[in-house]
Amino acid sequence: MKSSTSRLRLARRCAATPAIALLLVASPTSADERPWHGSVGVGGSLLASGAQGDRQRLDLAIDLKPSSRYGLSLAWRAIEPRDNDHHGGLLIAGLVYEGAAARPRLVLDLHGDVGVDLDARRPLVGAGVRTTLTIIGPLGVVLDGGAYLVIDGIEDTRLQLMGSTLLAVRW
To answer: What whole-number distance in Å separates Cα of residue 31 and Cα of residue 50?
Structure first.
């Protein structure tokens, strides 16, 4: 008698567990009901490889996430002018995924990008990790590390490894 009662209790618990799990997964949480958010930043990059003589860059980056962890980014990484030369730099667009966050202070984003090297007029693909640390109010610092493959034939294709530091405004 005692064993059949304990089996019955165990069967009820096992039957209730998937229902509870389904309710937890399907129910909205405060993280799912987030407003539109993003950032705009300006700063500089330092290239570790593939620079072709230009190691420092000026950066302008924007990312926007419409009420979710996924979003879009747009960046212009312009080569600093030397000897009155004008360099177009890189124009990059991509998808952003908010991998982790301790809102509102810290956000870790993963990004995959496509774009064009404006000087060589060649396509590029890349990916990276961006960490945003909010300091005071909406003002923060963005640390971005990325790798970009500029596709320029067989001999001139290059891998650009870069790190960026930006001063950003977040919302």
So the answer is: 40
Radius of gyration of the chain (CA): 23
What is d(CA 28, CA 50) in angstroms, rounded to the nearest whole number?
46
Residues belonging to the chain:
171
pTM: 0.74
Q: Please state, in angstroms and rounded to a whole number, the distance separating the CA atoms of residues 23 and 18.
A: 9
Select from 69, 141, 140, 78 the least CA-distant residue to 111: 69
**154 is written with which tokens?**
């067989």
For the domain with range 37-170, which CATH number is right: 3.30.470.20, 3.40.50.1450, 2.40.160.20, 2.60.300.12? 2.40.160.20
Q: 139-149: per-residue pLDDT in tens?
A: 999 999 999 99
pLDDT at 122 over 70: yes
